[in-house]
Amino acid sequence: MARWQPGTRERLQATALQLFASRGYDQTTVAEIAAAAEVTERTFFRHFADKREVLFAGQDDFLGMFTGPIETAPAETAPFDLVRLALEASGAFFPDDRRPWSRGRQEIIDAHPALGERELGKLATLKGRLGEVFRERGIPEPAATMAAETAVTVFHLSFAQWIAADEDRSFRAIARERLDALTSLVHPAH
Amino acid sequence: MARWQPGTRERLQATALQLFASRGYDQTTVAEIAAAAEVTERTFFRHFADKREVLFAGQDDFLGMFTGPIETAPAETAPFDLVRLALEASGAFFPDDRRPWSRGRQEIIDAHPALGERELGKLATLKGRLGEVFRERGIPEPAATMAAETAVTVFHLSFAQWIAADEDRSFRAIARERLDALTSLVHPAH
Questions:
Q1: Do B63 and B46 share a structural domain?
Q2: In this predicted complex, what is the ipTM?
Q3: Taking every pair of C-alpha atoms in chain A, what is the biggest distance, in angstroms?
Q4: How far apart are CA B185 and CA B153, in angstroms?
Q5: A41 and A80 in one domain?
Q6: Which of B182, B187, B190 is the best substitution to test chain A (most A C-beta atoms within 10 A)?
Q7: Angle between helices B79-90 and B143-162 (to 10 degrees)
Q8: Same domain, A15 and A93
Q9: Size of interface A-B (CB pairs under 8 A)
Q10: CA of A117: how far to CAs of A62, A147, A157, B98, in Å?
Q11: Which whole-number Å values give the CA distances from A77 to A71, A135, A140, B47, in the listed order?
């Protein structure tokens, strides 16, 4: 078996999720996941630090996808346009064919408070990193933190809708709708 | 000793916080709090369900203070003005003479993950209740949820700043600054 067989990581994720759903998250072992995906445990641990991380892998990629467009945008780009760019880019992380996996994953997380905490921790990390990126662009406080919180709120609400039952629009379309809702909400002083 | 002696509740809160800070939250018992505040344990339990709730009491009052002005505002009030009204009203919950207590309370919470979770749960309850109140006013989705999330984000950031070291402005002044930052973020041209 090749050490870096293409698709192994994805197969491990799909297999793990099936086992978590059918046997229960707590009852499923790494050995069982590896066996069901027809790889060795060693191969499993080349891809994931532990069982939990199967559900949370890719955090660095995701952070980079969110913050990259902000870091490389022209200096004169308005902060809210940076928020838009980040949300547009983050859509690449959530193609439609990933939606069933994301829905299954959320069911496991919602049923396990410790996993929910890990998820909240991820969002907090994203907020913190975004705030840094905005400040590095010279955006002062409290605008930088407000922009970071706003971006993560729109992201979080968009993601929740994207995995909602019967939802079939793209992540980007949903995120745009929420950005528009925010724009309509925040009328200039009247 | 009178059953409903004025100030007993506040004295229990102040005493508990002192003990949590000096002896540690986990090491402090209800019996010790009651003794230090010179009341019986029975009196303690008339005011608080348990030791933890000394730090989280008043949730219903706080929710009502936040949602009341939204429920009673004229029908034509714009959603963002409802957010403003709620934040203005919530300032009454955080007078300047409460700030030292709130700072001490936050130190205890930050040091105990289970208390931090309870705090996040409170914010989630507030978001959920606000969303309901906005929907009851006929605000459709996703605007209602966006308004609720925005209100709680501004509240949360304002509270964090209000208890920051060296901060001496009022909660309302800080909340207004953050609402202005949000308005400038979303509508930079104005």
A1: no
A2: 0.83
A3: 67
A4: 14
A5: no
A6: B182
A7: 30
A8: no
A9: 73
A10: 18, 23, 17, 30
A11: 11, 14, 15, 53
pTM of the model: 0.87
A144's tokens: 């930088």
The pair of three-digit structure tokens given for residue B28, joined into one six-digit string = 């402090």
Give the span between the Cα atoms of A184 and A3, in whole angstroms. Answer: 52
Residues whose CB is less than 8 angstroms from the CB of residue B189 and which lie 6 or more positions away in sequence, other chains included: none
* CATH code, domain with B110: 1.10.357.10
Interface test with B, best of A84, A155, A180, A186 (most B CBs within 10 A): A186
Token readout for A168 is 């079939």
The pLDDT tens digits for A24-65 are: 999 999 999 999 999 999 999 999 999 999 999 888 888 999
Report residue A8 as tokens. Answer: 């192994």
pLDDT band at A5 (very low <50, low <70, confident <90, very high): low
Residue at B63: amino acid letter: L
End-to-end CA distance of chain A: 67
CATH number of domain containing A48: 1.10.10.60
Closest CA of chain A from B68, distance in Å: 20
CB A17 within 8 A of CB A108: yes
> Measured at the alpha carbon of residue B127, what is the angle toward residues A91 and A148, in degrees to the nearest 5?
45
Domain limits at A39?
Answer: 8-54
